[in-house]
Specification:
- Chains A, B, C: One of its GO terms (cellular component) is membrane.
- Chains A, B, C: It is a multi-pass membrane protein.
- Three copies of one chain form a homotrimer.
- By secondary structure, chain A is mostly helical.
- Chain A contains 16 helices and two strands.
- In chain A, strands 1-2 form a two-stranded antiparallel sheet.
- The longest helix of chain A has 32 residues.
- The first copy, chain A, is globular, with a radius of gyration of 20 Å.
- The two termini of chain A are 39 Å apart.
- Chains in contact: A-B, A-C, B-C.
- Chains A and B meet through helix 7 and helix 8 of A and helix 15 and helix 16 of B.
């Protein structure tokens, strides 16, 4: 744990550097790279602050806070990109976050955990329920694109209405899954959290301090996201990366670095329930909460974002959900299963790298 | 049970009303709506009559009767629509029946059953076998469309031959599943029926009476179906519904109302084996028996119907089978799983509502 | 076992006949058919020779030999066809081998085994791991085609680079699965082989003799493959078969006849672990080893073969993997499940038969 903490502390230095790079005009690429590195520790501190506040508020409001702020970094970054009109990049980040949580994060967890422990077990009931929720989420994301592809011509406003309706259903489902896991069937799902807190004595939490930290971090995330979004187009084109690759592969690695570190760390302590729930839970939050909130937010701020994705993004999401479900549904993992997830991620990443820039993507 | 029976009895009044509406020219919309309402109780009585006759004929012929007449209402309605040349509507009704049985009927059963009982269990072996049969059925329905989409041009007669060959295989598979569940592996599958008859004393059945009822009901279904089909085009266009929406969403709700009532009623008595087998069994009957019989019947009466579906219908069926299998394969259900099925249905229904009218559909 | 051995011995006569037919110009169709029949016993003897050598070399190198030479017949045949420029036929043979192993071989094993034994069981852990590997393999094969279909225009060289990169990942995954099943988790996977050798006393093996046999058989396979490939175009066109049907249906039946005989024989002795591992293992070898080796070999000999398949081939592979996984993942089989696999194969074979000849296929 010490290494991770020190590492994140060091990365904080990139926040002032990125701001300096912006005002002193050191070049878009330097702004982009330093802002990206600066966001990594912020996402982690946002998670810590939310959890500390949750200790005071009790499990119910705490669970809600975690569920809402768990992907706040992605949400802020995506919202700023959306406001800037980078609709294609935002959509790519959504699919990329799902793919990288299910394949990269879960893959490294199972591989590194599996190299230490021959076989690792986790709750299959929850894994299967999550698999079904992810299936629904993927279906919902797929439907508007499928409608567009199977009709001879559909108006943009119809697609937009369809997307808002689908988004409303997804948010409802998200609320229902919270109700299920925190109220009616909490006994099924709190294995992971119990493990997390295991051995931790009751402690005092300074609420005012952590609320202040949360606000400060949120502000810093917003600033860094602005810098990142402003420099994105020029920087990625200088680096020879397509916007699709940037959105699907690069941005989610930055946004999910904190989850990544947590999931791998706990997997190496053989707490696979928690490790899998971090990876899959984060994907579900993106699909059932972040994506629909962005659709509705975009519609509210006059930057309409429909759910009509680039078909290859859908292929990637379907593939990720298929293989992640196939591997996690038996409640057991080993190093080969981790490797299969990583190999799938590698195949997709290479394909996105070679994929010609798609019309309509900024 | 009383409520359902009374309700169906009241609905019978719509039969004379629909006939009057037709002959007194009260307007196509009134004919359509009243004929639709009149069919609902008839489907239920057809089921009752078949089961009563099955008591006399013994389990073997009885099972066969149930397997053949179980979806007789859908079959008659579809045949009359097919004869009237509404090929697109018939195909839409086939996919819609599969989708609504797997998502709407099973979804309400699991939701309402799950609100009463925390966890409900059913036979996973049968569930998985049914899942495999449904996979095969979907594959078979998908293949002709896939052949058309992946070739640069295919003659209608080739598609027709392919469809008839596929239909013959599906009917053969249907016969094999009957053989399996009634002969060689009956012990696996009769849980549901045993529960159904539980507590029922041996009783006398008036065979002549029930055969007469079956004939009368069949005749009435045919008459109402004629009225429904004749008024369909004008009525749905007056109601602002596309033929695709009518076929996929509206007609299957009418045709499956009886199964729906049964599946939900038994789920609320915690007889999930029976509830799931009604929903999934009905889907399988549509896919493995009704659809291929219609292909062959259409070919015989000179109204050829191939299995080349609108691709979005295939997306809907694939999605329904995928999520229904993912939810039912572990032999357990709860209210959230029911909600996921209903949410998927809602997403599909909205998509069909917004889907532009497709060329070639009447 | 006697019958199979005698049968294969008799088939050897077609080797000289095919050579005579070639040099005496008896016609391409006779050359094609006799060469095809001649290959069947050779594939079987190649397997026997490899296993005998493996007895001497010990399990590690032996396992490696089996893993490398297990599909040597397919590899030699495909390589010769590739050198002759029949890229489309080679690709079709790859997909066809996967499909026929999963559906035809496993289907007949489960059907014939299931007619003798009511329920047959096999290791579900290994079945599920194989399912995940097959999912990855299918995904990898699907990706280049998906990239091509979802972009407005992609250069052939990009597709080729993408295919080589994907091939490298697949070979790496193949090596990892060998490491897993032979080293780190051997205890999970050697059920099948233990059964295979059960009751066999320790015996002397004449290494020189079997190496000589292996070389002779390899040479004969190469000669017969040359004859088969040379006569393929004229012969299949005379027989009224499209090159697609030949590649997907006909050639894999010839190449997999030996595995087929073994899998069915052991299934009828209720050794389902071994039966399933022959069928699925062979598919995995094709997807994770033979296909990528051909991509790299084609690139080396200047006959570049990308992984951009005919979309209907992909549909067939996806369908086969989906239904095979759905049937095998519970570790149980019965005759109906075998029938479902065979019915799926029949539907696909009919579809390939009716599929119009595709542009770009020789």
């Amino acid at each position: 744990m010490l290494n991770k903490d020190t590492f994140f502390l060091v990365l904080l230095v990139f926040i002032p550097v990125s701001i300096a790079a912006h005002f002193l005009a050191w070049g878009e690429t330097i702004v982009f790279v330093t802002a990206a590195l600066g966001i990594v520790p912020l996402a982690s501190y946002m998670g810590t602050a939310t959890e500390e506040i949750a200790v005071v508020t009790g499990p119910n409001i705490g669970g809600l806070l975690n569920a809402t702020f768990g992907n706040a970094t992605e949400l802020i970054l995506a919202f700023i990109a959306l406001r800037a009109g980078l609709v294609g990049v935002v959509k790519a980040t959504i699919t990329g976050s799902i793919v990288s949580n299910l394949l990269l994060v879960m893959g490294f967890s199972m591989l590194l955990g599996g190299l230490k422990f021959k076989e690792q077990k986790f709750q299959p009931t929850v894994a299967r329920l999550n698999a079904s929720s992810m299936n629904l989420a993927v279906i919902a994301l797929l439907i508007p694109t499928a409608v567009e592809y199977t009709s001879t011509g559909i108006e943009e406003s119809t697609l937009q209405n369809l997307s808002v309706a689908v988004a409303a259903i997804l948010i409802l489902v998200y609320i229902l899954t919270l109700l299920f896991s925190m109220k009616t069937h909490a006994y099924l799902c709190d294995v992971g959290e119990a493990e997390f807190e295991e051995g931790e004595e009751k402690r005092e939490v300074n609420l005012t301090f952590w609320i202040f930290i949360l606000l400060a971090v949120t502000l810093a995330v917003a600033v860094e996201s602005e810098l990142l979004v402003d420099s994105l187009e020029v920087a990625t084109s200088d680096l020879g990366l397509s916007p699709l690759f940037t959105g699907v592969i690069l941005l989610p690695i930055i946004g999910n670095a904190a989850e990544h570190a947590t999931a791998v760390t706990v997997a190496m302590k053989d707490k696979m329930d928690l490790s899998v729930s971090v990876a899959v839970g984060s994907s579900m939050q993106i699909a059932l909460f972040v994506a629909p909130v962005l659709v509705i937010a975009g519609w509210a701020i006059g930057q309409p974002m429909d759910l009509n994705f680039n078909p290859f993004e859908l292929v990637a999401v379907m593939v990720a959900v298929l293989i992640a479900n196939s591997i996690s549904s038996d409640g057991e993992s080993n190093w080969l299963e981790g490797s299969l997830l990583l190999a799938t991620y590698a195949v997709l990443a290479i394909a996105f790298f070679f994929h010609p820039v798609v019309e309509g993507m900024i």
